[in-house]
Amino acid sequence: MFENYTAIPFVKGSAAVLGGILFLYVLIRGVYLAFFHPLSRIPGPKLYAFTDLPYLYYLLRGEWPYRHRQLHDQYGPVVRYTPNDVSFTTANAWRTIYGHRIGASAHIAAFPKDPKGYRPPLTGDPNIVLTNDEDHRRHRRVLAHAFSEKALLGQESIMRHYVDKLISRLGERAKLGGSNAVVDLARWYNFTTFDMVGDLSFGAQFGCLDSGGYHPWVATIFDDIRLITVDETLRRHPLLNALVWSLVPKRWLASRLEHLERSRAAAMKRVESGSMGREDFMSYILRHNTDGEDGKPSDGPTLTPGEIVENANILIIAGSETTATLLSGATFHLLTHPDKHGRLVREIRGAFATEADITVTALGQLKYLNAVLKEALRMYPPIPGALPRTVTGAGEVIDNYWISGGTTVGVPHWAACQSEFNFHNPDEFVPERWIADERDAAYENDNRAVSQPFSVGPRNCLGKNLAYAEMRLILAKVLWHFDLELLPESRDWNKQKIFVVWEKGALNVKLTRAVRG
Ligand code: HEM
Protein backbone atom coordinates (compact mmCIF):
# COMPACT_ATOMS: atom_id res chain seq x y z
CA MET A 1 0.00 0.00 0.00
CA PHE A 2 2.75 2.45 1.03
CA GLU A 3 4.68 1.43 -2.04
CA ASN A 4 1.73 2.55 -4.20
CA TYR A 5 1.61 5.96 -2.54
CA THR A 6 5.30 6.53 -3.12
CA ALA A 7 4.84 5.53 -6.79
CA ILE A 8 2.26 8.26 -7.50
CA PRO A 9 4.70 11.22 -7.79
CA PHE A 10 6.93 9.07 -10.00
CA VAL A 11 4.01 8.15 -12.30
CA LYS A 12 2.89 11.77 -12.42
CA GLY A 13 6.43 12.88 -13.21
CA SER A 14 6.80 10.28 -16.00
CA ALA A 15 3.46 11.32 -17.51
CA ALA A 16 4.56 14.95 -17.47
CA VAL A 17 7.87 14.05 -19.15
CA LEU A 18 6.08 11.95 -21.78
CA GLY A 19 3.51 14.72 -22.34
CA GLY A 20 6.35 17.21 -22.73
CA ILE A 21 8.17 15.02 -25.26
CA LEU A 22 4.96 14.51 -27.23
CA PHE A 23 4.24 18.25 -27.21
CA LEU A 24 7.76 19.03 -28.42
CA TYR A 25 7.49 16.38 -31.14
CA VAL A 26 4.17 17.81 -32.40
CA LEU A 27 5.59 21.34 -32.28
CA ILE A 28 8.85 20.54 -34.10
CA ARG A 29 7.04 18.42 -36.68
CA GLY A 30 4.45 21.15 -37.21
CA VAL A 31 7.12 23.85 -37.63
CA TYR A 32 8.94 21.63 -40.13
CA LEU A 33 5.71 20.98 -42.07
CA ALA A 34 4.71 24.63 -42.17
CA PHE A 35 8.10 26.25 -42.90
CA PHE A 36 10.64 23.70 -44.22
CA HIS A 37 8.62 20.96 -45.96
CA PRO A 38 8.88 20.83 -49.81
CA LEU A 39 5.26 22.09 -49.97
CA SER A 40 5.93 25.04 -47.65
CA ARG A 41 6.08 27.54 -50.53
CA ILE A 42 2.50 26.75 -51.60
CA PRO A 43 0.04 29.48 -50.57
CA GLY A 44 -2.31 28.76 -47.69
CA PRO A 45 -2.69 29.45 -43.96
CA LYS A 46 0.29 28.22 -41.91
CA LEU A 47 -2.03 26.68 -39.32
CA TYR A 48 -3.47 24.40 -42.02
CA ALA A 49 0.07 23.42 -43.10
CA PHE A 50 0.88 22.65 -39.45
CA THR A 51 -1.99 20.20 -38.87
CA ASP A 52 -5.02 18.75 -40.67
CA LEU A 53 -7.29 19.43 -37.69
CA PRO A 54 -8.86 22.63 -39.11
CA TYR A 55 -9.74 20.72 -42.29
CA LEU A 56 -11.28 17.83 -40.34
CA TYR A 57 -13.17 20.26 -38.11
CA TYR A 58 -14.95 21.81 -41.11
CA LEU A 59 -15.33 18.45 -42.85
CA LEU A 60 -17.16 16.84 -39.92
CA ARG A 61 -19.39 19.91 -39.50
CA GLY A 62 -20.47 19.69 -43.16
CA GLU A 63 -18.90 23.08 -43.92
CA TRP A 64 -15.64 22.21 -45.63
CA PRO A 65 -16.53 23.19 -49.25
CA TYR A 66 -17.54 26.67 -48.00
CA ARG A 67 -14.29 27.11 -46.09
CA HIS A 68 -12.36 25.71 -49.04
CA ARG A 69 -13.90 28.35 -51.29
CA GLN A 70 -12.90 31.11 -48.85
CA LEU A 71 -9.31 29.83 -48.85
CA HIS A 72 -9.13 29.87 -52.65
CA ASP A 73 -10.73 33.33 -52.77
CA GLN A 74 -8.09 34.54 -50.34
CA TYR A 75 -4.97 32.70 -51.53
CA GLY A 76 -5.66 32.17 -55.25
CA PRO A 77 -5.89 29.11 -57.50
CA VAL A 78 -3.41 26.93 -55.56
CA VAL A 79 -3.89 26.26 -51.84
CA ARG A 80 -2.24 23.90 -49.36
CA TYR A 81 -5.01 23.04 -46.93
CA THR A 82 -3.38 20.30 -44.81
CA PRO A 83 0.26 19.29 -44.42
CA ASN A 84 -0.15 16.90 -47.35
CA ASP A 85 -3.15 18.14 -49.40
CA VAL A 86 -3.02 20.76 -52.15
CA SER A 87 -5.98 21.91 -54.24
CA PHE A 88 -6.16 23.74 -57.56
CA THR A 89 -8.98 25.63 -59.28
CA THR A 90 -7.76 25.83 -62.90
CA ALA A 91 -8.71 24.01 -66.10
CA ASN A 92 -5.07 23.03 -66.53
CA ALA A 93 -5.11 21.28 -63.15
CA TRP A 94 -8.12 19.17 -64.22
CA ARG A 95 -6.08 17.89 -67.17
CA THR A 96 -2.84 17.32 -65.27
CA ILE A 97 -4.40 15.65 -62.24
CA TYR A 98 -7.20 13.58 -63.76
CA GLY A 99 -6.45 13.39 -67.48
CA HIS A 100 -4.48 10.97 -69.63
CA ARG A 101 -1.01 12.46 -69.66
CA ILE A 102 1.51 12.18 -72.46
CA GLY A 103 5.12 12.20 -71.30
CA ALA A 104 8.16 13.24 -73.32
CA SER A 105 8.67 9.72 -74.61
CA ALA A 106 5.69 7.62 -73.57
CA HIS A 107 2.20 7.54 -72.14
CA ILE A 108 2.15 8.24 -68.40
CA ALA A 109 -0.68 6.83 -66.31
CA ALA A 110 -3.08 9.31 -64.70
CA PHE A 111 -2.52 9.95 -60.99
CA PRO A 112 -4.12 7.12 -58.96
CA LYS A 113 -7.03 7.66 -56.57
CA ASP A 114 -5.86 8.59 -53.10
CA PRO A 115 -6.79 5.85 -50.60
CA LYS A 116 -7.43 8.49 -47.89
CA GLY A 117 -10.45 9.72 -49.82
CA TYR A 118 -11.96 6.40 -50.89
CA ARG A 119 -13.04 3.69 -48.50
CA PRO A 120 -12.28 0.11 -49.47
CA PRO A 121 -15.31 -1.95 -50.59
CA LEU A 122 -16.91 -3.77 -47.66
CA THR A 123 -17.19 -7.12 -49.43
CA GLY A 124 -13.50 -7.14 -50.31
CA ASP A 125 -14.46 -7.44 -54.01
CA PRO A 126 -13.39 -4.40 -56.02
CA ASN A 127 -15.84 -2.20 -57.90
CA ILE A 128 -15.23 0.19 -60.80
CA VAL A 129 -14.86 3.26 -58.55
CA LEU A 130 -12.51 1.72 -56.00
CA THR A 131 -10.41 -0.67 -57.97
CA ASN A 132 -6.78 -0.09 -58.97
CA ASP A 133 -5.99 1.29 -62.43
CA GLU A 134 -5.19 -2.07 -64.00
CA ASP A 135 -8.40 -3.78 -62.89
CA HIS A 136 -10.29 -0.60 -63.62
CA ARG A 137 -9.74 -1.02 -67.36
CA ARG A 138 -11.40 -4.46 -67.18
CA HIS A 139 -14.38 -3.17 -65.15
CA ARG A 140 -14.79 -0.19 -67.41
CA ARG A 141 -14.72 -2.28 -70.60
CA VAL A 142 -17.47 -4.59 -69.34
CA LEU A 143 -19.63 -1.82 -67.88
CA ALA A 144 -19.16 0.53 -70.85
CA HIS A 145 -21.50 -1.69 -72.91
CA ALA A 146 -24.33 -0.80 -70.51
CA PHE A 147 -23.73 2.93 -71.14
CA SER A 148 -23.28 2.91 -74.93
CA GLU A 149 -25.49 5.01 -77.26
CA LYS A 150 -27.30 1.80 -78.26
CA ALA A 151 -27.93 0.81 -74.64
CA LEU A 152 -29.22 4.30 -73.86
CA LEU A 153 -31.84 4.05 -76.59
CA GLY A 154 -33.00 0.73 -75.16
CA GLN A 155 -33.16 2.18 -71.63
CA GLU A 156 -35.41 5.05 -72.68
CA SER A 157 -38.59 3.01 -72.24
CA ILE A 158 -37.62 2.17 -68.62
CA MET A 159 -36.87 5.86 -67.98
CA ARG A 160 -40.15 7.01 -69.51
CA HIS A 161 -42.08 4.53 -67.39
CA TYR A 162 -40.83 6.17 -64.18
CA VAL A 163 -41.06 9.75 -65.43
CA ASP A 164 -44.69 9.13 -66.44
CA LYS A 165 -45.35 7.69 -62.99
CA LEU A 166 -43.82 10.82 -61.40
CA ILE A 167 -46.05 13.06 -63.50
CA SER A 168 -49.13 11.02 -62.66
CA ARG A 169 -48.37 11.13 -58.89
CA LEU A 170 -47.68 14.87 -58.98
CA GLY A 171 -50.87 15.30 -61.05
CA GLU A 172 -52.91 13.69 -58.25
CA ARG A 173 -51.50 16.21 -55.79
CA ALA A 174 -52.07 19.17 -58.10
CA LYS A 175 -55.69 18.11 -58.58
CA LEU A 176 -56.33 18.15 -54.83
CA GLY A 177 -55.33 21.83 -54.76
CA GLY A 178 -54.65 23.98 -51.68
CA SER A 179 -51.98 22.73 -49.29
CA ASN A 180 -52.23 19.23 -50.82
CA ALA A 181 -50.78 20.63 -54.02
CA VAL A 182 -47.57 21.54 -52.17
CA VAL A 183 -44.87 18.88 -52.55
CA ASP A 184 -41.25 18.55 -51.56
CA LEU A 185 -39.90 18.23 -55.10
CA ALA A 186 -36.41 17.24 -53.89
CA ARG A 187 -37.94 14.08 -52.40
CA TRP A 188 -40.01 13.31 -55.50
CA TYR A 189 -36.96 13.67 -57.73
CA ASN A 190 -35.14 11.25 -55.43
CA PHE A 191 -38.06 8.78 -55.55
CA THR A 192 -37.93 8.88 -59.34
CA THR A 193 -34.20 8.42 -59.80
CA PHE A 194 -33.97 5.68 -57.13
CA ASP A 195 -36.87 3.76 -58.69
CA MET A 196 -35.29 4.17 -62.10
CA VAL A 197 -31.77 3.15 -61.21
CA GLY A 198 -32.96 0.28 -58.97
CA ASP A 199 -34.82 -1.14 -61.97
CA LEU A 200 -31.93 -0.48 -64.37
CA SER A 201 -29.33 -2.04 -62.05
CA PHE A 202 -31.14 -5.02 -60.52
CA GLY A 203 -34.60 -5.14 -62.05
CA ALA A 204 -35.56 -4.26 -58.44
CA GLN A 205 -38.79 -2.44 -57.62
CA PHE A 206 -38.13 0.14 -54.89
CA GLY A 207 -41.70 1.44 -55.27
CA CYS A 208 -40.81 4.92 -53.88
CA LEU A 209 -43.09 6.68 -56.38
CA ASP A 210 -45.96 4.29 -55.64
CA SER A 211 -45.72 4.67 -51.89
CA GLY A 212 -44.67 8.32 -51.84
CA GLY A 213 -41.90 7.40 -49.37
CA TYR A 214 -38.42 5.92 -49.29
CA HIS A 215 -38.08 2.15 -49.48
CA PRO A 216 -36.10 1.05 -46.35
CA TRP A 217 -33.24 0.07 -48.64
CA VAL A 218 -32.98 3.61 -50.01
CA ALA A 219 -33.04 5.01 -46.47
CA THR A 220 -29.96 2.87 -45.64
CA ILE A 221 -28.10 4.45 -48.55
CA PHE A 222 -28.42 7.94 -47.04
CA ASP A 223 -27.03 6.70 -43.71
CA ASP A 224 -24.19 5.01 -45.56
CA ILE A 225 -23.27 8.20 -47.44
CA ARG A 226 -23.28 10.10 -44.15
CA LEU A 227 -20.48 7.81 -42.90
CA ILE A 228 -18.05 8.78 -45.66
CA THR A 229 -16.65 11.85 -43.87
CA VAL A 230 -16.26 9.85 -40.65
CA ASP A 231 -14.40 7.16 -42.58
CA GLU A 232 -12.02 9.73 -44.03
CA THR A 233 -11.26 11.17 -40.60
CA LEU A 234 -10.38 7.72 -39.32
CA ARG A 235 -8.19 6.89 -42.27
CA ARG A 236 -6.23 10.06 -41.46
CA HIS A 237 -6.16 9.39 -37.70
CA PRO A 238 -6.64 5.68 -36.97
CA LEU A 239 -5.89 6.28 -33.26
CA LEU A 240 -9.22 8.11 -32.95
CA ASN A 241 -11.10 4.95 -33.96
CA ALA A 242 -12.71 4.13 -30.62
CA LEU A 243 -13.60 7.75 -29.83
CA VAL A 244 -15.15 8.52 -33.19
CA TRP A 245 -17.18 5.32 -33.47
CA SER A 246 -18.56 5.93 -29.99
CA LEU A 247 -19.99 9.23 -31.27
CA VAL A 248 -21.48 7.87 -34.50
CA PRO A 249 -25.13 6.72 -34.39
CA LYS A 250 -25.16 2.90 -34.41
CA ARG A 251 -27.97 3.05 -36.97
CA TRP A 252 -25.52 4.32 -39.62
CA LEU A 253 -23.31 1.25 -39.27
CA ALA A 254 -26.25 -1.14 -39.27
CA SER A 255 -27.54 0.60 -42.40
CA ARG A 256 -24.28 0.09 -44.22
CA LEU A 257 -24.39 -3.66 -43.66
CA GLU A 258 -28.08 -3.83 -44.47
CA HIS A 259 -27.54 -1.98 -47.73
CA LEU A 260 -24.81 -4.41 -48.66
CA GLU A 261 -26.91 -7.46 -47.88
CA ARG A 262 -29.87 -6.18 -49.85
CA SER A 263 -27.67 -5.33 -52.85
CA ARG A 264 -26.06 -8.76 -52.74
CA ALA A 265 -29.40 -10.57 -52.64
CA ALA A 266 -30.94 -8.43 -55.39
CA ALA A 267 -27.90 -8.63 -57.66
CA MET A 268 -27.59 -12.41 -57.31
CA LYS A 269 -31.29 -12.85 -58.04
CA ARG A 270 -30.92 -10.70 -61.13
CA VAL A 271 -27.76 -12.57 -62.25
CA GLU A 272 -29.55 -15.91 -61.92
CA SER A 273 -32.40 -14.76 -64.13
CA GLY A 274 -29.91 -14.03 -66.95
CA SER A 275 -30.20 -11.44 -69.72
CA MET A 276 -34.03 -11.79 -69.76
CA GLY A 277 -34.37 -9.71 -72.94
CA ARG A 278 -34.48 -6.58 -70.79
CA GLU A 279 -32.40 -3.54 -71.67
CA ASP A 280 -31.12 -2.84 -68.15
CA PHE A 281 -27.47 -2.52 -67.05
CA MET A 282 -27.27 -6.13 -65.95
CA SER A 283 -28.36 -7.54 -69.31
CA TYR A 284 -25.38 -5.83 -70.94
CA ILE A 285 -22.97 -6.86 -68.20
CA LEU A 286 -24.15 -10.48 -68.32
CA ARG A 287 -24.16 -10.63 -72.11
CA HIS A 288 -20.56 -9.45 -72.24
CA ASN A 289 -19.52 -11.70 -69.42
CA THR A 290 -20.73 -14.81 -71.22
CA ASP A 291 -20.62 -14.05 -74.90
CA GLY A 292 -18.14 -16.83 -75.64
CA GLU A 293 -19.34 -19.91 -77.50
CA ASP A 294 -22.10 -21.94 -75.78
CA GLY A 295 -22.60 -19.29 -73.14
CA LYS A 296 -19.06 -19.75 -71.83
CA PRO A 297 -17.20 -16.73 -70.46
CA SER A 298 -16.09 -14.42 -73.25
CA ASP A 299 -12.49 -14.11 -74.36
CA GLY A 300 -12.68 -10.44 -73.52
CA PRO A 301 -12.60 -8.95 -70.03
CA THR A 302 -15.10 -10.40 -67.55
CA LEU A 303 -16.25 -9.70 -64.00
CA THR A 304 -16.53 -12.20 -61.14
CA PRO A 305 -19.94 -12.63 -59.44
CA GLY A 306 -18.59 -10.67 -56.43
CA GLU A 307 -17.50 -7.81 -58.68
CA ILE A 308 -20.92 -7.76 -60.36
CA VAL A 309 -22.59 -7.38 -56.95
CA GLU A 310 -20.24 -4.57 -55.93
CA ASN A 311 -20.74 -2.74 -59.20
CA ALA A 312 -24.53 -2.99 -59.01
CA ASN A 313 -24.24 -1.56 -55.52
CA ILE A 314 -22.11 1.35 -56.79
CA LEU A 315 -24.46 2.07 -59.70
CA ILE A 316 -27.38 2.55 -57.32
CA ILE A 317 -25.47 5.16 -55.32
CA ALA A 318 -23.70 6.84 -58.26
CA GLY A 319 -26.77 6.98 -60.45
CA SER A 320 -29.57 8.18 -58.18
CA GLU A 321 -28.61 10.80 -55.62
CA THR A 322 -26.50 12.65 -58.21
CA THR A 323 -29.21 13.26 -60.81
CA ALA A 324 -31.90 13.97 -58.19
CA THR A 325 -29.58 16.54 -56.58
CA LEU A 326 -28.96 18.33 -59.84
CA LEU A 327 -32.67 18.41 -60.68
CA SER A 328 -33.44 19.88 -57.26
CA GLY A 329 -30.74 22.54 -57.68
CA ALA A 330 -31.90 23.42 -61.20
CA THR A 331 -35.52 23.73 -60.02
CA PHE A 332 -34.53 25.92 -57.07
CA HIS A 333 -32.47 28.30 -59.20
CA LEU A 334 -35.18 28.51 -61.86
CA LEU A 335 -37.88 29.28 -59.31
CA THR A 336 -35.77 32.00 -57.70
CA HIS A 337 -35.17 33.52 -61.18
CA PRO A 338 -38.65 33.92 -62.73
CA ASP A 339 -37.29 35.32 -66.03
CA LYS A 340 -35.10 32.24 -66.58
CA HIS A 341 -37.92 29.94 -65.49
CA GLY A 342 -40.33 31.65 -67.90
CA ARG A 343 -37.90 31.35 -70.78
CA LEU A 344 -37.33 27.63 -70.21
CA VAL A 345 -41.07 26.92 -69.91
CA ARG A 346 -41.69 28.75 -73.20
CA GLU A 347 -38.91 26.80 -74.89
CA ILE A 348 -40.22 23.41 -73.75
CA ARG A 349 -43.92 24.07 -74.32
CA GLY A 350 -43.22 25.69 -77.67
CA ALA A 351 -40.97 22.92 -78.99
CA PHE A 352 -43.43 20.02 -78.93
CA ALA A 353 -46.95 19.66 -80.34
CA THR A 354 -47.81 16.73 -78.04
CA GLU A 355 -46.27 15.11 -75.00
CA ALA A 356 -45.40 12.02 -77.06
CA ASP A 357 -42.97 14.17 -79.07
CA ILE A 358 -40.83 14.78 -75.97
CA THR A 359 -38.03 12.29 -76.51
CA VAL A 360 -34.49 12.12 -75.18
CA THR A 361 -33.12 12.80 -78.67
CA ALA A 362 -35.37 15.82 -79.26
CA LEU A 363 -34.56 17.27 -75.82
CA GLY A 364 -30.85 17.18 -76.68
CA GLN A 365 -31.56 19.96 -79.21
CA LEU A 366 -33.14 22.43 -76.75
CA LYS A 367 -30.58 25.21 -76.36
CA TYR A 368 -31.90 26.83 -73.20
CA LEU A 369 -32.67 23.55 -71.39
CA ASN A 370 -29.10 22.43 -71.91
CA ALA A 371 -27.70 25.80 -70.78
CA VAL A 372 -29.86 25.61 -67.62
CA LEU A 373 -28.49 22.16 -66.78
CA LYS A 374 -24.89 23.28 -67.32
CA GLU A 375 -25.40 26.34 -65.15
CA ALA A 376 -27.07 24.25 -62.44
CA LEU A 377 -24.11 21.83 -62.55
CA ARG A 378 -21.81 24.84 -62.01
CA MET A 379 -23.85 26.34 -59.16
CA TYR A 380 -24.90 23.13 -57.43
CA PRO A 381 -22.67 20.24 -58.57
CA PRO A 382 -23.84 16.89 -57.14
CA ILE A 383 -20.24 16.13 -56.09
CA PRO A 384 -19.05 19.52 -54.83
CA GLY A 385 -15.70 18.59 -53.30
CA ALA A 386 -12.35 17.48 -54.73
CA LEU A 387 -11.83 13.88 -55.87
CA PRO A 388 -8.42 13.14 -54.31
CA ARG A 389 -5.51 11.80 -56.33
CA THR A 390 -1.91 10.99 -55.30
CA VAL A 391 1.07 12.50 -57.11
CA THR A 392 3.30 9.67 -58.28
CA GLY A 393 7.09 9.33 -58.58
CA ALA A 394 9.35 12.10 -57.32
CA GLY A 395 6.73 14.71 -58.06
CA GLU A 396 5.22 16.82 -60.80
CA VAL A 397 4.84 20.48 -61.74
CA ILE A 398 1.18 21.50 -61.51
CA ASP A 399 0.23 25.09 -62.30
CA ASN A 400 3.87 26.17 -61.96
CA TYR A 401 4.34 24.68 -58.49
CA TRP A 402 6.53 21.66 -57.82
CA ILE A 403 4.34 19.15 -55.99
CA SER A 404 6.32 16.35 -54.39
CA GLY A 405 5.43 12.66 -54.84
CA GLY A 406 2.89 11.33 -52.33
CA THR A 407 1.03 14.65 -52.06
CA THR A 408 -2.77 14.47 -52.31
CA VAL A 409 -4.08 16.78 -55.02
CA GLY A 410 -7.49 17.61 -56.48
CA VAL A 411 -9.80 20.22 -57.96
CA PRO A 412 -12.67 21.17 -55.62
CA HIS A 413 -15.44 21.55 -58.16
CA TRP A 414 -17.78 23.91 -56.33
CA ALA A 415 -14.99 26.20 -55.04
CA ALA A 416 -13.48 26.37 -58.55
CA CYS A 417 -16.85 27.22 -60.11
CA GLN A 418 -17.67 29.87 -57.49
CA SER A 419 -14.36 31.62 -57.97
CA GLU A 420 -14.12 35.11 -59.45
CA PHE A 421 -10.84 34.01 -61.01
CA ASN A 422 -12.91 31.73 -63.26
CA PHE A 423 -16.42 33.14 -63.64
CA HIS A 424 -17.90 36.62 -63.88
CA ASN A 425 -20.60 37.05 -61.19
CA PRO A 426 -19.89 33.53 -59.91
CA ASP A 427 -22.80 33.54 -57.43
CA GLU A 428 -25.34 34.49 -60.10
CA PHE A 429 -27.44 31.87 -61.92
CA VAL A 430 -26.91 32.88 -65.57
CA PRO A 431 -27.62 30.03 -68.05
CA GLU A 432 -26.90 32.45 -70.92
CA ARG A 433 -23.18 32.32 -70.07
CA TRP A 434 -23.19 28.88 -71.76
CA ILE A 435 -24.76 30.15 -75.02
CA ALA A 436 -22.04 31.57 -77.29
CA ASP A 437 -24.25 33.82 -79.44
CA GLU A 438 -26.23 35.23 -76.51
CA ARG A 439 -23.93 35.95 -73.63
CA ASP A 440 -22.98 39.47 -72.58
CA ALA A 441 -19.38 40.46 -73.27
CA ALA A 442 -18.71 40.35 -69.51
CA TYR A 443 -19.16 36.55 -69.56
CA GLU A 444 -16.96 36.03 -72.61
CA ASN A 445 -13.88 35.41 -70.48
CA ASP A 446 -15.55 32.86 -68.20
CA ASN A 447 -13.27 29.90 -67.79
CA ARG A 448 -15.94 27.38 -68.75
CA ALA A 449 -13.50 24.42 -68.92
CA VAL A 450 -13.19 24.67 -65.12
CA SER A 451 -16.72 23.29 -64.69
CA GLN A 452 -16.21 19.52 -64.93
CA PRO A 453 -19.00 18.04 -62.79
CA PHE A 454 -18.48 14.58 -64.31
CA SER A 455 -14.69 14.77 -63.87
CA VAL A 456 -12.29 14.11 -66.76
CA GLY A 457 -9.90 11.38 -67.90
CA PRO A 458 -10.00 7.60 -67.66
CA ARG A 459 -12.02 7.57 -64.42
CA ASN A 460 -14.61 10.15 -65.32
CA CYS A 461 -18.33 9.47 -65.02
CA LEU A 462 -19.47 6.53 -67.09
CA GLY A 463 -23.11 7.51 -66.71
CA LYS A 464 -22.82 11.07 -68.08
CA ASN A 465 -25.00 10.53 -71.17
CA LEU A 466 -27.59 8.61 -69.19
CA ALA A 467 -27.57 11.33 -66.52
CA TYR A 468 -28.19 14.05 -69.13
CA ALA A 469 -30.95 11.97 -70.71
CA GLU A 470 -32.67 11.44 -67.34
CA MET A 471 -32.31 15.05 -66.23
CA ARG A 472 -33.61 16.48 -69.52
CA LEU A 473 -36.57 14.11 -69.57
CA ILE A 474 -37.61 14.67 -65.97
CA LEU A 475 -37.21 18.46 -65.93
CA ALA A 476 -38.86 18.92 -69.34
CA LYS A 477 -41.86 16.78 -68.44
CA VAL A 478 -42.36 18.46 -65.07
CA LEU A 479 -42.29 21.90 -66.70
CA TRP A 480 -44.49 20.75 -69.58
CA HIS A 481 -47.21 19.57 -67.20
CA PHE A 482 -47.03 21.96 -64.25
CA ASP A 483 -46.68 25.59 -63.29
CA LEU A 484 -44.43 25.73 -60.23
CA GLU A 485 -44.20 28.21 -57.39
CA LEU A 486 -41.55 28.09 -54.66
CA LEU A 487 -42.98 28.48 -51.16
CA PRO A 488 -41.40 31.12 -48.89
CA GLU A 489 -40.02 28.52 -46.42
CA SER A 490 -37.76 27.14 -49.20
CA ARG A 491 -36.31 30.44 -50.40
CA ASP A 492 -33.00 29.76 -48.61
CA TRP A 493 -33.02 26.10 -49.62
CA ASN A 494 -29.49 26.22 -51.04
CA LYS A 495 -27.92 27.11 -47.67
CA GLN A 496 -27.06 23.52 -46.83
CA LYS A 497 -24.48 21.42 -45.06
CA ILE A 498 -22.33 19.25 -47.29
CA PHE A 499 -21.24 15.77 -46.22
CA VAL A 500 -19.64 14.73 -49.53
CA VAL A 501 -23.09 15.33 -51.05
CA TRP A 502 -25.46 18.22 -50.29
CA GLU A 503 -27.79 17.69 -47.34
CA LYS A 504 -30.93 18.69 -49.19
CA GLY A 505 -33.79 20.12 -47.15
CA ALA A 506 -37.41 20.30 -48.26
CA LEU A 507 -37.87 22.03 -51.61
CA ASN A 508 -41.51 22.95 -51.13
CA VAL A 509 -43.22 23.80 -54.39
CA LYS A 510 -46.88 24.44 -55.23
CA LEU A 511 -48.06 22.59 -58.33
CA THR A 512 -50.75 23.79 -60.74
CA ARG A 513 -51.66 21.90 -63.92
CA ALA A 514 -50.45 23.91 -66.89
CA VAL A 515 -53.20 25.30 -69.10
CA ARG A 516 -52.35 24.87 -72.76
CA GLY A 517 -53.71 27.42 -75.24
C1 HEM B 1 -25.57 14.63 -62.59
C2 HEM B 1 -25.30 13.36 -62.42
C3 HEM B 1 -23.93 12.78 -62.19
C4 HEM B 1 -22.76 13.39 -61.82
C5 HEM B 1 -22.52 14.87 -61.55
C6 HEM B 1 -21.75 12.36 -61.74
C7 HEM B 1 -20.43 12.58 -61.41
C8 HEM B 1 -19.46 11.60 -61.36
C9 HEM B 1 -18.08 11.84 -61.02
C10 HEM B 1 -17.49 13.21 -60.65
C11 HEM B 1 -17.41 10.66 -61.11
C12 HEM B 1 -15.93 10.40 -60.83
C13 HEM B 1 -15.77 9.85 -59.42
C14 HEM B 1 -14.31 9.65 -58.99
O1 HEM B 1 -13.39 10.14 -59.61
O2 HEM B 1 -14.15 9.03 -57.96
C15 HEM B 1 -18.37 9.66 -61.49
C16 HEM B 1 -18.09 8.33 -61.69
C17 HEM B 1 -19.03 7.40 -62.06
N1 HEM B 1 -20.36 7.61 -62.31
FE1 HEM B 1 -21.33 9.39 -62.29
N2 HEM B 1 -22.32 11.15 -62.05
C18 HEM B 1 -23.64 11.36 -62.34
C19 HEM B 1 -24.57 10.42 -62.72
C20 HEM B 1 -24.29 9.09 -62.94
C21 HEM B 1 -25.25 8.10 -63.37
C22 HEM B 1 -26.73 8.38 -63.72
C23 HEM B 1 -24.61 6.90 -63.42
C24 HEM B 1 -25.12 5.54 -63.77
C25 HEM B 1 -26.27 5.05 -63.48
C26 HEM B 1 -23.23 7.14 -63.03
C27 HEM B 1 -22.26 6.18 -62.97
C28 HEM B 1 -20.94 6.42 -62.65
C29 HEM B 1 -19.92 5.38 -62.65
C30 HEM B 1 -20.13 3.90 -62.99
C31 HEM B 1 -18.72 5.99 -62.28
C32 HEM B 1 -17.36 5.35 -62.14
C33 HEM B 1 -16.60 5.46 -63.44
C34 HEM B 1 -15.21 4.89 -63.41
O3 HEM B 1 -14.59 4.86 -62.35
O4 HEM B 1 -14.74 4.47 -64.47
N3 HEM B 1 -23.09 8.47 -62.73
N4 HEM B 1 -19.62 10.27 -61.64
From TrEMBL:
PROSITE patterns: CYTOCHROME_P450 (PS00086). Gene3D superfamilies: Cytochrome P450. It comes from Remersonia thermophila. The keyword Transmembrane helix applies. InterPro entries: Cyt_P450, Cyt_P450_CS, Cyt_P450_E_grp-I, Cyt_P450_sf, Cytochrome_P450_monoxygenase. Its cofactor is heme. The chain crosses the membrane at residues 15-36. It comes from the Eukaryota. Keywords: Heme, Iron, Membrane, Metal-binding, Monooxygenase, Oxidoreductase, Transmembrane, Transmembrane helix. This is Cytochrome P450 monooxygenase. Belongs to the cytochrome P450 family.
